[in-house]
Amino acid sequence: MEKDFNKLIFNMRESIRTYDYFVNWDKVKANVKKIKTELNIINSLIGSNNFEIDFKNLLNKYPEIILTIPYLLAIRDKELKIIRNYKNLDLEYDLYNFDRSKIDSVKLLLLIKKTGLINLFYDKTIKNFEDYIYGVEVGLDSNGRKNRSGKIMENILEAYIKENLDLSKIEYIPQATVKKISDKWNISIKINKSSRKFDFAIFNKAKNKLFLVETNFYNGGGSKLKSVCGEFRTLSKELLNQNIDLIWVTDGKGWLTAKKPLEESFVDNKYILNLKMIENGVLNEIID
């Protein structure tokens, strides 16, 4: 099995998206449901001619509407620290707390005005805040696509392991921790991050050999790719010193923007594969 970097870099896939990659609708609906009642209450403020007075009165009567403010601003924070003055390095901050027991209507009004949130109430663009939050939640959920790409890679690889590796000769653990590996095969692993989970641990029973597998997929480039290469180079060396092989399965056109660090890792690491290599049976050769 000859190592050829060109076979790695020039066979990266454009996409591994599945139909459930785009939006986790169950999560979106659950998040909206959490504050559905509060959203319906603040709907009464849409089109208000005396927003400040009406807001204070509503807040006094229904203090729970304070919970809607972070949602309306498309954030998850329970507290906010916002720079008031950035003209010098002695930065000054305004602090906001969205706890019902710590309501400060004057400060909340300041936040609503300065962030432009007040315009949603005045210009009547929004007819219903529950519908608005659905859109916000869909947007926030898009941040989870990176994690979903990672999970799809894991699913693809596990399906391959089940269908193509000889399960009479090998055993495997998904989401393998150091403890799980020790408990199952009595193999002790020493790494810097003892809490680390490996996507898969594969054990060849006949050869008494352990392989640890990590997977990821990158649609886009960025400085993170270089640091990922450094992380897996270090990890590979740590494991090799313990007679354990790391198999790094990575893919995605994002690597075309980071060929140099990936090539350096390809030279140093024992095994870096993409999905095309897996398809061509390279993983079988390594394990068996």
Walk me through the structure.
By secondary structure, the chain is of the alpha/beta class. It folds into two domains: 5-18 and 145-287, Trna Endonuclease, Chain: A, domain 1 (3-Layer(aba) Sandwich), CATH 3.40.1350; 25-143, no CATH class. Helices cover 46% and strands 17% of the residues. The protein has 14 helices and seven strands. It has helices at residues 5-9, 25-34, 36-42, 51-61, 68-72, 105-114, 118-122, 129-141, 145-164, 178-185, 224-240, 259-268, 275-279, 282-287, and strands at 79-85, 92-97, 170-177, 197-204, 209-217, 245-251, 271-273. Strands 3-4-5-6-7 form a five-stranded mixed beta sheet. Strands 1-2 form a two-stranded antiparallel sheet. A hairpin with a 6-residue loop joins strand 1 (79-85) and strand 2 (92-97). Helix 11 (224-240) packs parallel to helix 12 (259-268). The longest helix has 20 residues, at 145-164. The model has no long low-confidence stretch (mean pLDDT 93).
Number of strands: 7
Distance between the termini: 13 Å
Rg value:
26 Å
The average pLDDT is: 93
| Strand residue percentage | 15-25%
Q: What would you call the shape?
A: elongated
Assembly type: single chain
In short:
The chain is α/β, with parallel strands linked by helices.
List keywords for this structure.
two-stranded antiparallel sheet, single chain, 288 residues, 46% helix, 7 strands, five-stranded mixed beta sheet, alpha/beta, Trna Endonuclease, Chain: A, domain 1, 14 helices
